[in-house]
Amino acid sequence: MTAQTEETAAPDLLYSEAEGDLRAAVRSLLADRSDAPTVIARIESDTPYDPQLWKALGADIGAAGLLVPEKLGGQGAGHREAAVVLEELGRSVAPVPYLTSAVVATEVLLALGSEDGPVAELLGELAAGRKVAVLAVPFPAAPGSSSAAEAVTGTLDGTVTAVADAAAADVLLVPTTDGLYAVEAAAHGVTVEPLVALDQTRPLATVTLTAATGTRLADAAAARSAVRRGLLAGAGLLASEQLGLAEWCLTETVRYTRERHQFNRPIGSFQALKHRMAQLWLEVVSARAAARNAADALATGSPDTPLAVAVAQAYCSKVAVHAAEECVQLHGGIGMTWEHPAHLYLKRAKADAIAYGTAGSHREAIAELMELPAP
Question: What pairing do the DSSP bridges indicate for beta strands 265-266 and 204-213?
């Protein structure tokens, strides 16, 4: 048997020892600083975003700089490590802007390929956890979609709705008709108006620019390519968040059905519930394979990355919603209460299902990439 070539080598879906250590550190932090009562209290307040938790996660653990090379002040890790962090954030639905800042915005800046100047400086700030940057496009924007403000004689005008984590941002990366601009969120002419969102752990806002000024980072062609790359990475690693969410829902549901008794028996011993949880376990295992494949493709720069991302999103979004729905239903009356965290996971799963493209749009992308009839 001949050895596999590099081009045909199977992706590595297993977790390395370093990834296991990273998981343990992130899980311990979130268990201590972002348990269910804390998250519920946060979303009931005016400030769901927790800056102290973000500092501990982004700066102290160094998670904010995982995708940033060491020469630019980051950790020099990769998408597989970032995926592990997102799995744990999915398990806790922690209100931190990791996906939007440390993944999407960071990936956009990295795609510009600059090792000095304002791009490198901003990357250093993001990697150190000193600043939060958000790409000013609608959260449902799929890779390849276009959304740009108007840029006239150096000033920016336009309105972008449903921008995730905009209220937590220090810097907005604004795609325009003539390039990509970095705009300070507190600058004159910038208004960030919070929206009432289904998922209160990842707040949305409307960003309005009125003769705002910013630093031009790239021309129109480079900006389009960078934004496409950022959204692709966001969609691919969102699958890991959905995986973590589904795993939490399955684990908690199994635990509850072992403890809850009816007719002097644990309800988990009933055949119908056994079948439902077994089916959900199979879906979660498959979701793990899809999510890990997407993370590995992004990490290795595989030419099949768009396909791997589309497959992961088309499948993982459905699994996350199903797991959250089963969690609510099989917890019975307690699952419908505000005090129990099940509703947080259902809302996050539903919101994630339309983030960076719907499952339907990703299925269409799969058909196009494989030259199949559209579904």
Answer: unpaired
- pLDDT, residue 375, reads 55
CB burial string 263-295: b at 16+ within 10 A, e below: eeeebbeeeebeebbeebeebbeebbebbbbbb
Could you read off the pLDDT of 129-174 as tens digits, one per residue?
Answer: 999 999 999 999 888 766 556 665 568 999 999 999 999 999 999 9
Residue with tokens 């960030």: 192
Looking up tokens 């901003």, which residue turns up?
122
Amino acid at 297: A
Place of tokens 């990703």: 362
Mean predicted lDDT score pLDDT of the chain: 92
Low-confidence stretches of the chain (pLDDT beneath 70): 1-8, 145-154, 373-375
Give the closest residue to 340 by CA, choosing from 252, 228, 215. Answer: 252
- φ/ψ of 47, rounded to 5, equals -130, 80
User: Would you list the DSSP string of 287-308?
Assistant: HHHHHHHHHHHHHHT-TTHHHH
Cβ density class 153-185: b for 16+ within 10 Å, e for less: eeebebebebbbbbbbbbbbbbbbebbbbbbbb
DSSP string, 1-25: -PPPPTTTPPP--SPPHHHHHHHHH
| Burial (Cβ within 10 Å: 0-12, 13-18, ≥19) of residue 24 | exposed
Q: Is 300 exposed, middle or buried (0-12, 13-18, 19+ CB in 10 A)?
A: middle
Question: Is the CA virtual torsion 3, 5, 6, 8 positive or negative?
Answer: negative
CA distance 80 to 317: 19
Separation between Cα atoms, residue 42 and residue 289, nearest integer Å: 33
| Beta-carbon contacts of residue 330 (< 8 Å; ≥ 6 apart) | 253, 256, 257, 273, 276, 277
Phi and psi at residue 44, to the nearest 5°: -85, -10
Tokens of 198: 């289904």
What is the model's pLDDT at position 374? 57
Beta bridge partners of 262: 265
